[in-house]
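Key result, reporting period 2: structure in, sequence out.
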């Protein structure tokens, strides 16, 4: 079997396994965070969590598929390792950036919700206003 094909197979197996593992880990551990962000609404948190996981799979597996094409033929075993390290390194970086982006956005939403809940008017109300 051609070394390039071997490298592609290893790349696909490892990339897909990493994507599934990261998605499951984020989904399992993100439920509590999402419930807090969404003020305890468990059904909504579960729905948002599921949508985030689907989006995560689509983006990452799409990237893995697009990044599959090689620069050329792999001549020796060293070339297999070099190609795999480059490709898997980029996939890991994309997974990490996606994770950090999700956490950043959710933390901003959480912080805004916390500020709104703890907001106290500067002066106590003194009278009613007719609408």
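The corresponding designed sequence is given below.
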């Amino acid at each position: 079997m051609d070394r390039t094909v071997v490298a592609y197979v290893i790349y696909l197996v490892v990339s897909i396994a990493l994507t599934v593992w990261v998605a499951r880990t984020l989904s399992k551990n993100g439920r509590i965070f999402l419930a807090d962000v969404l003020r305890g609404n468990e059904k909504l948190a579960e729905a948002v969590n599921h949508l985030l996981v689907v989006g995560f799979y689509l983006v990452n597996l799409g990237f893995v598929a697009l990044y599959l094409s090689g620069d050329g033929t792999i001549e020796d075993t060293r070339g297999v390792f070099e190609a795999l390290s480059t490709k898997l390194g980029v996939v890991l970086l994309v997974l990490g950036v996606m994770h950090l982006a999700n956490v950043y956005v959710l933390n901003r939403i959480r912080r805004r919700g916390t500020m709104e809940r703890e907001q106290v008017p500067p002066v106590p109300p003194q009278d009613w206003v007719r609408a």
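The mean pLDDT is 84. Residues 11 and 85 are 9 Å apart (CA to CA). This case is discussed further under Risks and Mitigation.
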